[in-house]
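Inputs:
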Amino acid sequence: MTAEIVRGSFRDPSGFVYTADGALYRQVNRVFAEEFDACETSGLYDDLAGAGLLVGHRVVGVERAATADAHAVIEPAPVAFISYPYEWAFGQLRDAALLTLEVQERALARGFSLRDASAYNVQFSDGRPIFIDTLSFERYREGGPWAAYKQFCEHFLVPLALMSTRDVRCGRLQREYLDGIPIDLGSTLLPARSWARAGTLLHVHLHARATRRFQGASVSTVTRARQVSKRALLGLVSSLSGTVRSLEWRPAGTQWADYTSDHNYSDAALAEKRRLVRDHVAALAPRTVWDLGGNTGTFSRVAREIAPSVVCFDFDPAAVELNYRQVRERGETGLLPLQLDLMNPSPAVGWAHEERLSLAERGPADAVMALALVHHLAIANNVPLPRVAELLSRLGRALVVEFIPKSDSQVGRLLRNRADIFPDYTQEGFERAFEPHFELEARDRLADSQRVLYRMRRRRS
Amino acid sequence: MYIDPAAGSLILQVLVAGILAIATTVRTVRDSVKRFFQNLFSRREKR
């Protein structure tokens, strides 16, 4: 058995995640033995996993350990697609925050506490957020404050407050600040009215000032060894929860488009397109599908009828938010809406470019769908068609792609106020660009339009 | 503890601990009063 340690799993000395023989394991190091055993025997794990809050795991033999330092090895239930907070919609980050607080509240009730409150400890599985770091718990010490309070504020509260009260695009700051948006930056950027709200006043503004004022101070000297009761700690969690709940962002009634009428199809043509997409996905029989530019997920849901795991990417935070709300309301499983700008996709970031994976590193998907997308890349963003084909061949083993010609009003709109510098943007040019990378399997003209739908398979394996 | 909790963050918790504890007590009392009346009414309905 060759163990490959997940390169981003190094910050916490209590253990790490690794893969071996295609399975995912988490090693518990000896230094953490007592805490882990206490969690395991207390029933905390069963309680949290049973409530769907924590990823379930089974303890496997220590002979499967990756290093000699092992106390135990567990095999956590797998998550279909690893996503990051900077790819989540507002509602996803908000739900992940509330999940973290609920986990902390339940842990406290059983005499444990979260050692960290990183947003990267949460993933989305079957439409809901779930806590994935089994080793984040330690026994609660009476009188001690919550060590992860600042991390919670920087990973959750500050980005949510900025997105809710300043601009939803502030969420993008999370990609730059991997350990959370600094509390003092949050305090600087939040609007003046946030001083008048108890939650943001305490957890962001006063928190930022306390952090600056007491930098490097000895806590026990300043506080004269006063302690924080469990009752106060529960009050802190409850206050954070109330603050998070008070933060909202509604895509409706904003600058964002109305998604119900955002296409060029008659009802009949739309039904026809759905049928064609479904047939093409069925012919590819993928286990994983990435729907690029999937908007609110209409065709992701068509693909989901076939594939067990579909990720729907869109660059518009409003579309992703609406998609996620639909997933939650209907209890949909196997469909994950994420925010992604294909012109600047999630890069490999963090220490040695290895802590958080790029989009391409998390692929390839069995099938990629690119419906009503290529004209945005080729015409609105000047990407040459061969480069579009090349990227899509890196992201997926097969492709369902739509070509929309210049005669279509959607493309006409993009060209209305600019020179047409795209002589190769034709159906022939499109097929010529994709030919070196993909083998053409099917080509269908969509009813009532000049649009063409293709099914292709990647040439290299 | 493997993350740096920041001194100011811990001190702030100590400083506001009293208020937070009172808030928890108020909530607990409020919840139990609410539960009492809910039980009372549901018992009446059952009759």
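Residues 296 and 323 of chain A are 5 Å apart (CA to CA). Flag for discussion at group meeting.
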